[in-house]
Amino acid sequence: MGVEEKHKRIRAELEHIETACEFVAEVARQAGMSDDAVYHCYLSVEEICTNIIEHGYEYSKSGEVIDIVCRIHPGLLQVIIIDDAAQFNPLGLGDPDPSAPLLEREGGGWGVFFVKKYMDSLGYRFHKGRNHFIMEKRRS
Amino acid sequence: MIDINVSSVDNATLIEVSGRVDSMNANQMGEALFKQIDNGNIQIVLDLAGVEYMSSAGLREIVSALKKVKRASGDLRVAQPSDRVLEIFEMSGLDTILQIFATQVEAVGSY
């Protein structure tokens, strides 16, 4: 069985993130994944795209884009989120502490933490001048 | 898109949110919470029964509001989170900091 690949490009603005989430969710549904797995993919795409727009592009509105590639393998869905911001590996950051008292909480930093919990494997590479964040979720 | 409804019930200020709380609109929920705290309404119940989805953007607003209301000697208590929202609270450990109630009546009655 081959690998089916689907692409989507969005403008790197918060109002377009939902389009990316819906695209990946629909691919996951078509791949026969459970409602929970679809939700996990949806939330993960939102978190990563939000980080790229906030920290990578710093809310610039100069036509930056985010590319989303979905590869449906026989046993898993691979979602690759690609951007042109400065080289940055979100997996290099430490995790926030769930046991931290309220006053020591910064509020942020939870997005990638949730992605780590919800997806089965994560990876990062800088290729041809672009950040590639790679997420995999088992189809069953 | 989210809807936010604010009312007074007994001793509490009730903020009912419905919709999908994400990075696009979580600030609206935060602004609603901050506005009540700034107005001196510091016994707040945040009813999330209508929220089917919340990302870390929503969590960030709740943490900010909780810090602010605690500094004012008040509290922010949550009612009726869905299983998925509750899971977000649990993974982040916020469930050990926030008081969470299964019903709106219990949350309001806790003040």
What descriptive keywords fit this protein?
heterodimer, A: alpha+beta, 5 strands, B: 111 residues, alpha/beta, Transcription Regulator spoIIAA, 5-stranded mixed beta sheet, 4 helices
Descriptive overview:
- The complex is a heterodimer of chains A (140) and B (111).
- Chain A has one domain (4-138): Heat Shock Protein 90, CATH 3.30.565.10.
- In chain A, 32% of the residues lie in helices and 29% in strands.
- Chain A is globular and about 50 Å long.
- The mean pLDDT of chain A is 95.
- In chain A, a hairpin with a 3-residue loop joins β2 (65-72) and β3.
- Chain A has 3 helices and 5 strands, in the order βααββαββ.
- The longest helix of chain A is centred in the first third of the chain and has 22 residues, at 35-56.
- In chain A, α1 (17-30) packs antiparallel against α2 (35-56).
- Chain B is an alpha/beta fold and 111 residues long.
- Chain B has a single domain (2-109), classed as Transcription Regulator spoIIAA (2-Layer Sandwich), CATH 3.30.750.24.
- Helices cover 41% and strands 34% of the residues of chain B.
- In chain B, strands 1-2-3-4-5 form a 5-stranded mixed sheet.
- In chain B, β3 (43-54), α2 (56-71) and β4 form a beta-alpha-beta unit.
- Chain B starts with a strand and ends with a helix.
- Classes of the chains: A alpha+beta (140), B alpha/beta (111).
- The A-B interface holds A 14-15, 17-18, 39, 42-43, 46-47, 50, 53-54, 96-103, 105, 107-108, 110-111, 113-114, 117 and B 22-24, 53, 55-57, 59-61, 63-64, 66-67, 70, 84, 88, 91-93, 96-97.
